[in-house]
């Protein structure tokens, strides 16, 4: 009996010591995380003040270099505040509102520096500066309690938990939403882009569920005997579509078709893939046949990538006027390496169909455009987004720098104003 | 007659022994070009490097660096310059270079930094991986040490992080649901309301349950990686969703206020 009592006492003491040690470790960890959160919060609050000052200072000068310095600061600070906000647990909704507002301010500064449209900046920014000041004050008031957590994580988390409404946070959120809409309303191009991705342009007649199934069987005969489950998209979806899941032997997958016109959005099959039997050439030939069978006869091959089970092959619509490739109207196919079966097709971008405005291509002398050690290997005319939701006619240049190692770059240059829109390092 | 048979067998034996080793490791008979990946590309890169045409890393991915090297080789050896490794090009390559497949594969699998230039001792061309793990430990390589090919705007690290997130968040979901979760991450990358890196999106505090409960650190399976590759190549079964939640476990009231798009498995996707 005595022995048992001793063993039990030792066990209880041991467990107690272990639990104290564990608790200590947990507290250490919590303190470390809290210190980081507090650091990010302080950083965001301080830089928000700097950002407001920078916006205000940008209105001081007529001198181009001086304005540029301030625009650079606005762009840099908005990005830094954004980064700090992204690292604080303040809830998704408030975080998104912040991200959006700061991102748009930074983009506006960057765009102004690039275009030199200082008048528009001077017109808009006095109000933005005032709004930023008020936001900064509201943010300080809302976050003052965050410094009173007594080193306890649960106190902090209670304050940000969206199950417990925080009225001060709600105020910041509502203010941000209001300022965002007024200070940075959607541009015409953005609004057009929004309509495009929401498929507002589709005017075809609505098809029934039965017609949708018929279409699936016609487009993808390999699953014509499958068991199908059809559901409609939610009522709040931006565009109505049929979501058709299927199961046939080893094949499981889905097809999404728009309700208006039964256009293919995407198709994907999962099945075991055996060892590769087809060559690259055979796969590409099959991919060309598949796009035609899917009714996309106005597309051309762009690129392909092989992985261990399948090839991903990309096509893009060819502009009927100048034969330039419209990258935004892309189609992607997934082709199995064993049998060449079509494992997937994605036509979401293709059916959005860009409305391309007429543009002219002005020639570029590559010898003066690039450094002497750059060799231009390929030049292709394409249409692509200029970062402002506008489709621009561009030169897509594949250039090579042949030094100690060969380096390949893809450079996209606006064909009309010769602005460099994109530079990619290719391996 | 017996003497003739012995002589014939002897000649045959000698000729088999005399066949150069590089032919024993010759390519498959398939022609390959940009976009290809795997064993044939590893051999192509190694042979081109052996002859001094290929200066980049041997990684089994037929990208632009391999393409230029191949074109240069074709030009130098009087072959049609098309950047396609067809029968003639492969024959010229095997006839003019050596390929020690075992050695090259061993380096790739060990994750070593190495080159394969001809005329230099192989042991002087290796910098051993001191991390102790093989290249496979990165999770994005296959059993021949070849890494996965992703579109140029993404990296191997993005693939790895996203595969971890997809596996942690949706491993019990149908494949379509896993692709949709990966697509939500990529949709956030395009949205002004979210951080502008994949890492920033995944580790944004309170954004993903798998980060909060540590399940993101589970080793993802091939299915999760395949789902990420499909999403990176454009598939979006979520139809442009920015959020998703499990209606059985969601505690946030706000998430229910988001416009819903569709349900896949246990997840409701919304904008």
TrEMBL record, chain A:
Name the Gene Ontology biological process terms. Answer: spore germination
Boundaries of every Sporulation protein YpeB N-terminal domain copy? 26-115
The chain positions of domain Sporulation protein YpeB PepSY1 and PepSY2 read 166-355
Q: Which Pfam families match?
A: YPEB_N, YPEB_PepSY1-2
Top-rank lineage group of the source organism: Bacteria
Q: Where are the transmembrane segments?
A: none
| Protein name listed in UniProt | Germination protein YpeB
UniProtKB/TrEMBL annotation, chain B:
Which Pfam family, any one, appears in the UniProt record? PG_binding_1
Domain (Cell wall hydrolase SleB) spans: 172-270
The region annotated as signal peptide is none
Residue ranges of every copy of the Peptidoglycan binding-like domain listed in the record? 38-93
Region named Disordered: 125-153
Q: Which keywords belong to this entry?
A: Cell wall biogenesis/degradation, Germination, Hydrolase, Signal, Sporulation
What Gene3D superfamilies does the record point to?
A: 6.20.240.60, Cell wall hydrolase SleB, domain 1, PGBD-like superfamily/PGBD
Biased composition regions of type Low complexity, renumbered to the chain: 131-145
The organism sits in which domain of life?
Bacteria
Family label: Belongs to the SleB family.
Protein name from the UniProt record: Spore cortex-lytic enzyme
């Amino acid at each position: 009996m005595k022995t048992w009592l001793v063993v039990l006492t030792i066990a209880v003491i041991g467990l107690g010591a272990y639990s104290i040690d564990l608790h200590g470790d947990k507290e250490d960890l919590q303190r470390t995380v809290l210190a980081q959160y507090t650091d990010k919060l302080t950083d965001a609050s301080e830089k928000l003040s700097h950002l407001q000052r920078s916006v205000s200072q940008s209105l001081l000068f007529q001198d181009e270099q001086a304005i540029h310095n301030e625009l650079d600061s606005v762009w840099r600070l908005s990005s830094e505040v954004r980064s700090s906000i992204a690292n604080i647990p303040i809830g998704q909704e408030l975080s998104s509102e912040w991200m959006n507002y700061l991102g748009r301010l930074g983009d506006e500064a960057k765009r102004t520096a690039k275009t030199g449209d200082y008048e528009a900046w001077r017109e808009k920014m006095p109000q933005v500066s005032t709004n930023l000041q008020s936001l900064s004050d509201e943010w300080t008031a809302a976050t003052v309690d965050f410094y009173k957590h007594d080193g306890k994580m649960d106190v902090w988390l209670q304050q940000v938990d969206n199950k417990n409404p925080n009225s001060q946070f709600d105020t910041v959120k509502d203010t941000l939403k209001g300022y965002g809409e007024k200070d940075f309303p959607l541009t015409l191009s953005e609004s057009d882009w929004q309509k495009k991705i929401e498929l507002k342009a589709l005017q075809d007649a609505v098809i029934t569920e039965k017609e949708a199934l018929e279409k699936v069987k016609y487009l993808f005969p390999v699953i014509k005997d499958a068991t199908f489950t059809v559901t409609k998209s939610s009522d709040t979806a931006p565009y109505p579509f049929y979501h058709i899941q299927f199961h046939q032997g080893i094949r499981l997958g889905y097809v999404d078709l728009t309700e208006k016109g039964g256009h293919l959005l995407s198709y994907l099959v999962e099945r075991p893939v055996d060892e590769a039997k087809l060559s690259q050439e055979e796969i590409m030939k099959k991919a060309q046949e598949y796009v035609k069978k899917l009714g996309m006869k106005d597309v051309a091959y762009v690129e392909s990538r092989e992985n261990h089970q399948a090839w991903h092959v990309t096509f893009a619509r060819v502009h009927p006027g100048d034969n330039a490739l419209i990258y935004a109207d892309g189609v992607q196919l997934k082709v199995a390496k064993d049998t060449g079966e079509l494992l997937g097709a994605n036509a979401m971008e293709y059916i959005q169909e860009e409305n391309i405005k007429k543009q002219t291509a002005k020639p570029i002398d590559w010898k003066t455009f690039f450094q002497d050690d750059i060799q231009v290997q390929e030049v292709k005319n394409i249409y692509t987004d200029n970062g402002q939701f506008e489709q621009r006619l561009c030169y897509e240049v594949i250039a090579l720098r042949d030094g100690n190692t060969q380096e390949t770059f893809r450079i996209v240059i606006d064909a009309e104003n010769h602005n460099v829109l994109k530079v990619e390092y290719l391996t | 007659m017996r003497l003739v048979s012995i002589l014939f067998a002897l000649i045959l034996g000698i000729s088999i022994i005399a066949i150069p080793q590089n032919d024993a490791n010759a390519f498959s008979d398939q022609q390959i070009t940009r976009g290809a990946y795997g064993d044939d590309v590893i051999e192509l890169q190694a042979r081109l490097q052996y002859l001094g045409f290929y200066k980049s890393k041997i990684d089994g991915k037929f990208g632009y660096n391999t393409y230029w090297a191949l074109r240069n080789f074709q030009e130098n050896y009087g072959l049609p310059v098309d950047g396609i490794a067809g029968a003639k090009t492969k024959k010229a390559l095997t006839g003019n270079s050596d390929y020690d497949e075992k050695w090259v594969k061993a380096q790739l699998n060990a994750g070593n930094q190495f080159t394969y230039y001809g005329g230099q001792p192989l042991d002087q061309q290796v910098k051993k991986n001191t991390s102790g793990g093989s290249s496979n430990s990165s999770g994005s390589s296959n059993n021949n040490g070849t890494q996965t090919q992703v579109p140029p705007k993404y990296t191997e690290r993005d693939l790895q992080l996203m595969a971890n997130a997809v596996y942690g968040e949706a491993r019990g979901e149908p494949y379509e649901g896993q692709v949709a979760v990966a697509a939500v991450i990529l949709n956030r990358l395009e949205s002004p309301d979210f951080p502008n890196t994949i890492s920033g999106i995944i580790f944004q505090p309170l954004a993903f349950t798998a980060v909060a409960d540590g399940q993101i650190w589970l080793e993802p399976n091939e299915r999760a990686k395949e789902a990420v590759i499909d999403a990176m190549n454009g598939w979006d079964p979520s139809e442009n969703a920015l959020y998703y939640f499990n209606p059985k476990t969601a505690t946030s009231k706000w998430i229910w206020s988001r416009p819903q798009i569709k349900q896949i498995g246990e997840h409701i996707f919304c904008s």
